[in-house]
Design brief:
single chain; 114 residues; alpha+beta; hypothetical protein PF0899 fold; 3-stranded mixed sheet; 2 helices; binds zinc ion
Length: 114
């Protein structure tokens, strides 16, 4: 039921923003979810369909984009996504500093009708 509470609070946030923008309908919601986050896309979509009827988000499209973990290598001054089990920089093999642990869930953007 993890995804149910996440989706419920996410919809509240989205509709809160939509109302403040004077929207009467939310057309699309674009989410960014870390690839290591414990959310299952199918469950999120399932609860989205269950929770949205009769609300501002009714009929909106839910887009989910998965983002990898990311690290920053100070030596090479660039970000990289670690591959496999290695967290080392692909160029110099230094272990960089983690900038995203791949567990985030963000509302990247949304489209509304006003
Ligand atoms: Zn490097």
């Amino acid at each position: 039921m993890h995804e149910l509470s996440i989706m419920a609070s996410l919809l509240d946030t989205v509709e809160d923003h939509a109302r403040r923008a004077g929207a009467h309908r939310v057309r699309a919601i674009n989410l960014v979810i870390g690839e290591r986050a414990s959310f299952v896309d199918d469950s999120l979509l399932f609860y989205f369909d269950m929770l949205t009827p009769g609300r501002l988000c009714d009929g909106a499209a839910l887009h989910i984009r998965r983002t990898p973990m990311s690290f920053y290598c100070a030596a090479c001054q660039q970000c990289y996504a670690p591959s496999g089990e290695s967290f080392r920089c692909p160029i110099c093999a230094t272990v960089g500093q983690i900038t995203s642990d791949g567990r985030e869930l963000l509302i990247e953007s949304m489209e509304v009708e006003v």
